[in-house]
């Protein structure tokens, strides 16, 4: 694994600059936290790293060939499928028993076979997080992953996320410095409004 | 839970027995008032005629003949509609190429197709072609709308996690497209039977339901005409139920990962 290097990345939408000459290095196997005010370009940056947006200028090194995993701002689950089915859709080789065990650690026991549209927002969020953590990946992109969780659940899920992602490259986008702390972020990058 | 669902289903059912009975009574009274069987045969006379027909091998052979062709046209069009809509969604040029053809199929009167087909081919398999031509644009349009309405956020999720093309189609596209396809099928099922039988009445292929309708017209045999019409309605409803059953099973199968 190698560091991911962003060199003078710029991106505009309809003439409005969202990112301008942004440079950063995300060390391999470490957690980097990106903090910014709303509209500061955090999600655009993640979308560039996910490959959904192309920067207007600048270079990205070290990202090619990496297996990605993500927790999006939205849950992005298949509503008609159960939590287990949603997770095994991405990781079909993972045994059902292993998925159930992982679900228990984040308090999702008892709802394994319910369609996710019947679950509460917090439960769906935990399914989305588990899906990202249980798949095979090199880099984990987290876009405000713990939003909508109550304090107790959040603490439990953050611990589980930190434990399961240890040793992998993680990019955490958040407004909350305590999340960066709980995830043992090695660096915090502040994105300014352009 | 089950009783609530059953009650809801009961409420949702659009055809009520009492309403059917009222219309049958009106039909019976009207035929009694007219008192001329060739103008309007009574429901009882039609049932009697149906009973007479049902014990003949020719009756079942005719149903089989028309069913195979009309249902065949439907399934061929469903397959072609799904395939062409998928290609259209994937390649803009295909959509541009097919758009005028689909529009023509939607707007040209079915009689024009039937006459043209009779000039080109024999009437034996006419119902397959006409059923196909009526169903294809409906399925194509609905499936294309379904693909275009697929959840972009879920598709992005699939890309990030490296979901294979097969799993993307099965778990992300098909559940989105299925309601559109189902709605297209509901429209097309009625269309294929109406147009298929109309084609048989004009083309008069030997051994078809359409041939019996044509003979009933020639001999002013109203009980025969209404008995065969009743058969068409029953076969159409049965076919609709079979297709719905197939779609329900497909939906259920898709929920398994």
Helical content class of chain A: 25-40%
The total number of structural domains of chain B is 1
Distance linking N and C termini of chain A:
32 Å
Oligomer: heterodimer
Give the helix tally of chain B: 11
Tally the beta strands of chain A: 8
Which pair has the most extensive contact?
A-B, 22 and 16 residues
Gyration radius of chain A, in Å: 17 Å
What is the H-and-E element order of chain A? EEEHEEHHHEHEHE
State the major sheet of chain B: none
Tell me the layout of helices and strands.
The complex is a heterodimer of chains A (194) and B (257).
Chain A: E1 4-13, E2 16-26, E3 31-35, H1 42-50, E4 57-61, E5 68-71, H2 83-90, H3 96-105, H4 121-134, E6 139-143, H5 151-164, E7 169-173, H6 177-182, E8 187-190
Helix pairs in contact in A: 2-4
Chain B: H1 2-12, H2 17-34, H3 43-54, H4 57-90, H5 92-107, H6 110-120, H7 126-148, H8 152-160, H9 165-203, H10 209-218, H11 222-254
Helix pairs in contact in B: 3-11, 4-5, 4-7, 4-9, 5-7, 6-7, 6-9, 7-9, 9-10, 9-11, 10-11
What does it look like?
Chain A is α/β, with parallel strands linked by helices. Chain A has a domain at about 80-135. Chain A has helices spanning about 40-50, 85-90, 95-105, 120-135, 150-165, 175-180; strands at about 5-15, 15-25, 30-35, 55-60, 70, 140-145, 170-175, 185-190. Chain A has a five-stranded parallel β-sheet with strand order 5-6-7-3-8, sandwiched between helices. Chain A has a three-stranded antiparallel β-sheet with strand order 2-1-4, covered by helices on one side. In chain A, a hairpin with a 2-residue loop joins β1 and β2 (about 15-25). The radius of gyration of chain A is 17 Å and the shape is globular. The mean pLDDT of chain A is about 90. Chain B has about 260 residues and is an all-alpha fold. Chain B has a single domain (about 55-255), classed as MetI-like (MetI-like fold, Orthogonal Bundle), CATH 1.10.3720.10. Helix content of chain B is about 85%, strand content about 0%. Chain B has eleven helices and no strands. The longest helix of chain B has about 40 residues, at about 165-205. Chain B is elongated, with a radius of gyration of 22 Å. Chain B starts with a helix and ends with a helix. The model of chain B is unreliable at about 1-5 (pLDDT under 50). At the A-B interface, β5 and α2 of A face α8 and α9 of B.
């Amino acid at each position: 694994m190698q560091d991911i290097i962003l060199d003078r990345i710029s991106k505009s939408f309809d003439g409005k600059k969202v990112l301008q000459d942004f440079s950063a290095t995300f060390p391999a196997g470490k957690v980097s936290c990106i903090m910014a005010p709303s509209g500061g370009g955090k999600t655009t940056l993640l979308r560039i790293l996910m490959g959904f947006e192309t920067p207007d200028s600048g270079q990205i090194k070290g990202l090619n060939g990496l297996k990605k995993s993500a927790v999006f701002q939205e849950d992005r689950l298949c509503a008609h499928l159960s939590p287990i089915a949603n997770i095994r859709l991405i990781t079909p080789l993972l045994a059902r028993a292993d998925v159930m065990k992982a679900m228990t650690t984040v308090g999702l026991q008892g709802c394994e076979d319910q369609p996710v549209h019947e679950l509460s927002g917090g439960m769906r969020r935990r399914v989305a997080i588990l899906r990202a953590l249980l798949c095979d990946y090199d880099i984990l992109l987290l876009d405000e992953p713990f939003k909508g969780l109550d304090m107790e659940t959040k603490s439990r899920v953050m611990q589980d996320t930190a434990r399961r992602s240890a040793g992998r490259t993680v990019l955490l986008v958040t407004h909350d410095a305590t999340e960066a702390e709980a995830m043992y972020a090695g660096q915090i990058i502040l994105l300014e409004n352009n | 839970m089950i009783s609530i669902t059953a009650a809801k289903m009961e409420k949702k059912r659009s055809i009520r027995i009492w309403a059917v009975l009222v219309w049958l009574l009106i039909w019976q009274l009207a035929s009694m008032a007219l008192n001329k069987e060739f103008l309007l045969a009574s429901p009882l006379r039609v049932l009697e005629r149906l009973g007479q027909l049902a014990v003949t091998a020719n009756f079942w052979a005719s149903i089989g003949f028309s069913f195979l062709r009309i249902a065949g046209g439907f399934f061929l069009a469903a397959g072609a509609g799904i395939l062409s809509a998928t290609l259209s969604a994937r390649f803009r040029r295909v959509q541009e190429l097919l758009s005028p053809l689909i529009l023509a199929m939607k707007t040209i009167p079915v009689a024009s197709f039937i006459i043209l087909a009779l000039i080109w081919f024999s009437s034996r398999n006419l119902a397959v072609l006409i059923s196909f031509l009526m169903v294809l644009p409906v399925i194509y349009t609905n499936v294309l709308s379904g693909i275009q309405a697929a959840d972009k956020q879920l598709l992005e999720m699939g890309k990030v996690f490296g979901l294979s093309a097969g799993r993307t189609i099965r778990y992300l596209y098909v559940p989105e497209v299925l309601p559109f396809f189902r709605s297209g099928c509901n429209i097309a099922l009625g269309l294929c039977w109406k147009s298929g039988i109309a084609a048989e009445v004009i083309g008069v292929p030997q051994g078809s339901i359409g041939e019996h309708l044509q003979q009933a017209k020639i001999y002013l045999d109203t009980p025969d005409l209404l008995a065969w019409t009743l058969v068409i309605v029953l076969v159409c409803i049965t076919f609709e139920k079979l297709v719905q059953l197939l779609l329900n099973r497909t939906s259920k199968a898709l929920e398994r990962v």
